Each structure stands twice: as structure tokens, then as C-alpha cells.
Automatic annotation (TrEMBL):
Name assigned to this protein: Uncharacterized protein
Lineage, opening ranks: Eukaryota, Metazoa, Spiralia, Gnathifera, Rotifera
Length: 59
């Protein structure tokens, strides 16, 4: 038979577990966003940004 304190501890443990999972998912989504942004910029030829000196040399 479970008492009130063990039920409360289980609820806290579950809340912490869900919070950790959400933080993990947010970090993964942030990483995917960074990777896809880099991939997109690479496809557009914008991955390496030119310095003002390099831009003047091209003109």
C-alpha cells in the first residue's frame, strides 16, 4: 500500500522526467535547426560570408 509521501515523490519524479524530456527535445530541435540552416546556406552559396575587403576585390 502506497502512502501519500511516496505518491508525491512519484509525481515529482514523473514531473522531473517529463521536464528533462522536453528540455532534451528542445535541444535536439535547436540542433536540427542549426544544421538545416547551414545546409540551406551552403546550397545558396552563403555558407562562407565574405569580408568587406573580399567584396571590394570582386567589384
Amino acid at each position: 500500500m502506497m502512502n501519500i509521501s511516496s505518491i508525491a515523490e512519484d509525481n515529482i519524479r514523473n514531473d522531473l522526467q517529463h521536464t528533462c524530456i522536453l528540455i532534451y527535445k528542445m535541444q535536439i530541435l535547436s540542433m536540427y535547426h542549426l544544421l538545416w540552416t547551414s545546409y540551406w546556406q551552403s546550397g545558396l552559396g552563403q555558407l562562407i560570408k565574405q569580408t568587406p575587403e573580399q567584396q571590394q576585390q570582386q567589384n
